[in-house]
# Entry
Amino acid sequence: MEYVLLILVGFLAGTIGSLVGLGGGVIIVPSLLFLGATHFLPTVSPQVAVGTSLVVIIFNGLSSTLSYMKDKMVDYRSGLLFFIGSGPGAIVGAWVNNVLSLAHFSLYFGLFLIFVSFLLMLNRDSSKQVESKHFKITRTYITNEGETVTYGYHPVLAIVIAFIVGFFGGLFGIGGGSLMVPAMILLFLFPPHVAVATSMFIVFLSSLVSSLTHITMGNVEWLFALALIPGVWFGAKTGAFINKRLKSKTVVIVLRLVLVLLGIRLIYQGIS
# Structure
C-alpha cells in the first residue's frame, strides 16, 4: 500500500512538474511530510523530504527533457547558461536548508509566488514587440499558433537571476522552475512552451547538483525514492504530452494556478 501511494504521488508530481516546468518537488515534499504525519508512511524530517525529492526530480527532469527534445522545444544554450547560475545557487540553498529556520521565509516566499502569478496576468502582446537590440543574445521560435516570437537576455543578468532561482530551489526543495519559468516568460520574453521545456532541462542539471549535496548529508530515504521514480518518469512523459497540445495562453494559465496553490501551501507552512 505504501509503495502504491508513492507511485501515485510520483506520477502526479511528474505530470504537473513537466506540464509547467516546476520539477515536481511542489508535490513530493508536502506529500511525504503529510503521509508521514498521518502514519501512511514512516515519518521523515523536512530535510529528508527535500533530499529525497531532489533525487527523484533528476528523473523527472531527464524524462521531460527527452520528451521535449523530440519537438525541438529545449533551448540548450540558454539552459546551460542559466545553469551556470542555478547550479551554485542550488548548492548554497541546500546547505542553508540545514541550518536555517524556514518559517518566516516560507511565508514571504509564498506571498511572492502569488505576486508572480498576478504578474503573469499582464498583457504580453506589447512586450513581444520589444526590439531584439535590447537583448545581447536573441533567439526566435515559431509557436503552436504559427507566430514567430523573438526572445533573449543579457548573459550576466541571466546568470544572476538563475543563481537566485537555484538557491530557492535548493532551499525549499520545490524545484527552481517555480521562479525560472516566470522569469523567462516575463523578463526574457521566452515563449511559454520553450520556457517550460528549457526549465525542465535546467531542473535536471540543478537537481543533479543539489541532490549530491543532500546525499552527502544523509538526507535521502532511498526506499521512498525508488518507489517514486517510476511514477515520476511516466508522469513526466504525460505532462510533456499534454503541454505540447496546449496553446501558449493555456500553459500560462495553468502555471499561474500552480503558483497560487504553491504560494498558499508555503504561507500555510510559514504560519502553522
